Amino acid sequence: MAIVKINAITVPEGAGAELERRFAARKHSIDGHPGFEGFQLLRPVKGEKRYFVVTRWADEESYSAWWEGAGRAGHGQSDRSGEGTEADKPRKPVSQSADLLEFEVVLDSLEQN
């Protein structure tokens, strides 16, 4: 059964553009992982202030395998966008907090069945 993981991210006022830049820089880094089916970064426009990072997986095992390897490692990377020794400094988090929401897909209008 497919699953969806939604990371609800709270960012300080004015930090949304930096969050979007960081995700854009790594947009396709997860594409080839077994069981990964899709990704969306949702910007709040009304009724919500958090960004939502939505990923869809074939199953819990695929998500867990990604998180225990590349997922966890990717969240601790240094920011290498600068030059010299500044590029080696650990990247400061953009978010103030994040909550992981987890779902099983019960119905999907995009499926061919």
From TrEMBL:
Domain ABM: 3-94
Region (Disordered): 69-96
Protein name: Antibiotic biosynthesis monooxygenase
Superkingdom to which the source organism belongs: Bacteria
Organism in which the protein naturally occurs: Corynebacterium lehmanniae
InterPro entries: ABM_dom, Dimeric_a/b-barrel, Heme-degrading_MO
Gene3D superfamilies in UniProt: 3.30.70.100
Keywords for the protein's UniProt record, in alphabetical order: Monooxygenase, Oxidoreductase
Pfam families: ABM
Coiled coil: none
Keyword field contains Cytoplasm: no
Bias (Basic and acidic residues): 77-91
Molecular function per GO: monooxygenase activity
